[in-house]
Amino acid sequence: MTEPILQVRDLVKHFPVQQGVVFKKTIGHVRAVDGVSFDLNRGETLGVVGESGCGKSTLAQVLMRLEQPTSGSALFEGADMFGKKSAAELRSLRRDMQVVLQDPYTSLNPRKTVGDIIGEPFEIHPEVAPKGDRQRRVQELLDTVGLNPEHVRRYPHQFSGGQRQRIGIARALALKPKVIVCDEPVSALDVSIQAQVMNLLGELQSEFGLSYIFIAHDLGVVRHLSDRVAVMYLGKVVETGTEDQIYEHPQHPYTQALLSSVPVPDPSLRNRRETIRLSGDVPSPASPPSGCRFRTRCWKAEDICAEQQPELAVRLDGGELAPDAEQGHPSACHFAERNEHVVS
Amino acid sequence: MTDPGEGRQSTLSTGADAEGVDEVRRDSPQQHEGSPEVGSKPREKQRGLWGDAWLDLRRRPLFVIGGLIVLFLLAIAAFPGLFASGDPNAQDLSLAREGPSAEAWFGYDALGRDIYTRVIHGARASIVVGVLATLLTVLIGSLVGLVAGYFGNKTDSFLARFAEIFLGLPFVLGAIVILSVFNAGIEGAPGMLRVMTQVIVTIGVLAWPISMRIMRSAAIAAKQQDYVKAAKALGASHGRIIFKHVLPNCIAPVMVYATIALGQYIGLEATLSYLGLGLQNPVVSWGMMISNSQQYIISTPHMLLFPAGFLVLTVLAFVMLGDAVRDALDPKQR
Amino acid sequence: MSATDDGTGGSPKPRLLEVQDLHVEFRTREATANVLNGVGYHVDEGETLAVLGESGSGKSVTAQTVMGILDTPPGFATAGTVRYRGEELLSAKEERRRELRGENMAMIFQDALSALNPVYTVGFQIAEQFRFRRGMSRKDATAKAAEMLDLVKIPNAKQRVKEFPHQFSGGMRQRAMIAMSLALDPDLLIADEPTTALDVTVQAQIMDLLDELRRERDMGLILITHDLGVVAEVADRIAVMYAGRVVEESDAESLYKRPAHPYTEGLMESIPRLDQKGEELASIKGLPPNLADIPPGCPFHPRCHRAEEECRETVPELHELRAGRHSACHFAEELISRD
Known about the structure:
The complex is a heterotrimer of chains A (344), B (334) and C (339).
Chain A: E1 6-19, E2 25-40, E3 45-49, H1 56-63, E4 71-76, E5 79-80, H2 87-96, E6 97-100, H3 114-124, H4 134-144, H5 161-173, E7 179-183, H6 191-208, E8 211-216, H7 219-225, E9 228-233, E10 236-242, H8 243-248, H9 253-261, H10 303-307, E11 313-314, E12 330-331
Parallel strand pairs in A: 3-8, 3-9, 6-7, 7-8
Antiparallel strand pairs in A: 1-2, 1-4, 4-5, 9-10, 11-12
Helix pairs in contact in A: 3-4, 3-5, 4-5, 5-6
Chain B: H1 19-27, H2 48-58, H3 61-78, H4 80-83, H5 115-151, H6 153-168, H7 171-183, H8 192-223, H9 226-233, H10 238-246, H11 251-274, H12 286-292, H13 302-328
Helix pairs in contact in B: 3-5, 3-13, 5-6, 5-8, 5-11, 5-13, 6-8, 7-8, 8-11, 9-10, 11-12, 11-13, 12-13
Chain C: E1 15-27, E2 32-44, E3 48-52, H1 59-67, E4 75-84, E5 87-88, H2 94-103, E6 105-108, H3 112-115, H4 122-133, H5 138-151, H6 157-160, H7 170-182, E7 188-192, H8 200-217, E8 220-225, H9 228-234, E9 237-242, E10 245-251, H10 252-257, H11 262-270, H12 309-313, E11 319-322, E12 325-327, H13 332-337
Parallel strand pairs in C: 3-8, 3-9, 6-7, 7-8
Antiparallel strand pairs in C: 1-2, 1-4, 4-5, 9-10, 10-12, 11-12
């Protein structure tokens, strides 16, 4: 097995909560991402799922260096991403990692033509394409994402949501990146359009050998595209494994509840499915519960859950750490137990 | 859903949206999907926002009319001799407050000076002060506002507080202080150029915070948009983001303000003259003419009417230009 | 034209709402969009009708027209009828319609935060209805409001009536909205994408709550959504909308088993499933039509894989195939009888 293209270790991002107008006083921290580790292999898609406030979007921003991490490290092709970087190193990192954002309406500058939007990466990184070649490259990219190359002079508002998302994808592809972070790329789209964009992402991956970090709240979408999945809750990864392990043999109660909450499009299963319903909402990430963060909504919670934070590790049924880490997949629950029946 | 043509209103397909009409705008070009659209040849050179805006502007009657009026006024300001041959300060008290006639189209003022000649000769001072003062305030204000809004945090706190100092000064008081300091120790009346420069700088120094605040709030809104995030992810420099992404999306409100401010500044010049701080005889300006007419409004309305009419025309022309440019810079309005 | 002529035949429950051949136009300076082009559906007492469609299909506009809260201009209802318990509403006086709103029919929206006024407490906003429409005293009304919050399972209701909307979480706000809409005990509730803005675990709670309340109060529920999963879990009947028309109407189970319209079929195939990892999703090609310029014939034909000459020329009417199964496709019979 080759070295992972991206290795993230104990990534932490806290946002200070401040009070006051002129003299700001920090009164606490929002623990948006609180110790996240994962590997991303070449050509693979890592799905990150979780509800709002679980930190998945912050994770994307930190990885894209749009936010500075509070602590932790990430190695891209073995080289540290966050240390003091020279401008040149940062630029080459930017070329290798790109992002597709959620909202196709605000992610494109309304006052630029599509040609300018997709051509901007070449202007920022002129070494990628000589000036005379750019127009052709832009049109090629439009063609790649399934848009009419003759539309370079149009403005974003002349396109539908799905088409705009394709423009955003073309922009991300322009610099031939190795990794694309997709932050909820299809959640603002209609079902029939969503499928088109997901298929496109799949095709591009095999064509260009891309690695994706695919962030979404829709579990079906994540399963469809991901090879491996990390489930996040309040800034922490609670369970991670292959797509099959997470969806067919979930061990963490939160994963099980999440899967069970997704409505299945089959009325004949109504009232026949065993369902787990969580009570209440996700607590505020500014003051997460002690110990296991899920304990306030967990039906298995006992005293130990409030006292001791369960680490993410391969566990046997019942929650003990497995002696042989090759068997099974990591989850962070004192009472981890397989439940194969949550998905229909 | 007050204006369904507005485009989208929120992230997901908001149920309460006037979905249908939203689609109309958004999807209208797709009817031609696949077939080359008339007028957009594939190899045509890209023009970008400003180029497209210029093309669009030339087709707008509002722009053409406004532009012609402005050109006309500029011509008057540059070559007043071409439009009126007399001396604006020639007096004939026997003609004082005569109404408009064939010899004197606009009539005579209280000192028996020909109002038409004075209006023509007054254009230079008024337009130069108005236009340059507007440019100066908007430039300073926008630049500071952009920097404050975009960088936020301490930069913003500092610049915003700094601007508030100027905003807190009563304009006239501030102007008196500045102009008296400039002109302390100078014997006699300073030259026209010197006074105009001083007036422009004074207005600039005291009025920039208003456009700064407008720009700042627009920049704060614009920098939170995802396209700014995307540009950062591409490695774009701050300068590039500010000028290519934030600025074009912030211009509209400042432009509207600038066209209104223009008229205001021409009036301010008059206020300063009235206080003995601005332009003095023999220099003529519309503002001075208007302020001189105040005692005669009832008895000799044409003394007010003609200079004020030109002022209104000037402001109107710039408002038309500003509106046209603002719309042309918004692709959705084309 | 309408699917509602006889419905399910000997329906035991009285008809609550009947929409027939509803046409709505949106007029703007540039164009007139035909947002609704003959929509028809009906809801009986105690029944859940799901209206399924993508953005631009007209599902929300229909609901707004039924409620009488459509913004005019730009929206104009140009033809059709809306009957509530037999009473024609489109031609009714505004006063009568206002009387019906809240008292007989109520609506909840996707964005509960903007639907609640941030400067008043949640309790005050619920109590308002009791005070002005039931003439209760402030104290009694507040006590009733607490009862309503309790009904929608907001813990600690007596305390929470005093709180402001921003102190509520997303799920709680939607519960408060439901409480507010049910305050005057309407028998028809229209829920417009009630869970779209919520997380799945909370969505499940809210859907359970809505279903339970409907059953307890024998209320008619119109659930407007784009989520095929949500529909499958709660709907009795489903109306699928496309380009301002109902293209298929059926009981839930048979619709999922065998869709009778290619659009419904396409929708079903384009959702990524939770229980299997597919290779490629079968997506519907193209885009929904421009409503100012809907293609002649079947509005779906440019995107339809089985479109033939007939589809380009004749608009297929919504017709009954089997008891309770309606489709607006020329090939519906083929679709439904294949196996």
